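Hello,

Our lab assistant flagged a job as stuck in the queue for most of the afternoon. It eventually completed. Since we weren't sure the result was trustworthy after the delay, we are filing this so someone can double-check. Below is the sequence as submitted and the structure that was eventually returned. Let us know if re-running is recommended.
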Amino acid sequence: MRWLMGLAALGGVLLAGCGAPEDQDSAAAFASRYTAAPSAPLLIRGATVLTGAGERLDNTDVLVIDGKIERVGEDLSAPRDARIVDAAGRYVTPGIIDVHSHLGVYASPGVDAHSDGNEATSPNTSEVWAEHSVWPQDPGFATALAGGVTTMQILPGSANLFGGRSVTVKNVFARTVNEMKFPGAPHGLKMACGENPKRVYGSRGSAPSTRMGNMAGYRKAWIAASQYRDKRQAALDGQGEMPDRDLALETLADVLDGEILVHNHCYRADEMAAMIELSREFDYQITAFHHAVESYKIADLLATNNICSALWADWWGFKMEAYDGIVENVAFVDAANACAIVHSDSDIDIQRLNQEAAKAMAAGRRAGLEISEAHALRWITSNAAKALGIDDQTGTIRVGLNADLVIWDRTPFSVYSQAQQVYIDGVLMYDRNDSDFQPVTDFALGRVSAPGGMQ
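-- returned structure --
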């Protein structure tokens, strides 16, 4: 029977992502409920392995035990009960990671009823959490899985200066977002600079309506958050009363304490530089600038400040702040020893992030840079894992990490390449040649005729 996401989960046919029984008395509210399903040992034999750390290993085996990578090498042996996959002539990579997705919060089909990504009611909505909008039955999760995506960060939109918290999820079949949440992954804070917030609120005759208004709004919020954080810490130290709980200030204070990562929508080089100054003023770290079409202009500054750039391969020119984008952006940022990432921001491009990385690699090569496929793969695997704070669990093929793996029919940098099998924590989640492992959401099944002629 074909695997389904949603109602089928109630029948217990899912092999992963259903989670452990919830214990509301002992577990924190909104904590991850994901639990990897038990899986037999797996030996992938004779593949070309791109590790995600810049290495290419030919004629190599990957042994997986208990959902973890046990060994990587040639002529490996496996337990008797292991599943053996002959991958001769094929490529194996880590699962693809998309650091900028809106699946579930702007679910398919794209109708107003599914528009849950922007809480555009105030320039500062840092109190909202994207996970409280995620619809696990979004058909986009299944199509992303077929493209080799095993992990993604789902973000609020960019209408606001502070859009709220992001959530990192495993791309597994689940009934609730808690059953998808990546265990141990920190929340992110979505910030946005530039045209979007000033357009949204300026059109209403309110602040901010200019870039300087944007900056003033950030600074006011961080001042309030600093005061809240100091009062909270003083209370914990026994030096005063705990301030009344404030969800917005709580999020910002956790950023200042280093517990939440900052993911900043920002296009222009001058604005990214201004945001770096802001981060210095209030002593927080920017994890990544997203979209960042002018990162190539300040790549050295980004490298010095340990800030990743999550980039499109070739989107540009669709508004003024995107006008000066170049197709060499990813490669030039990478060449400056800054952290480069290829992201989607699209329910379509997430299905072919391998091709987007290939386009960025090709543009860099045309500009005279020597970029191997093994190196470019980092842009959608290990660098992305670093930006999400999960590189100690996934993003590379090395001993001890989660067995999030994709078997491709040829190099993933070919336009003709297709993911043949996708594993998450060693569990087969997608198989192009087996319809039992091609998930379909309940919603995507559509409506059928019912007794009495109803549809």
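-- support follow-up --
The delay was a queue issue, not a problem with the job. The result is valid. The mean pLDDT is 93. The radius of gyration is 22 Å.
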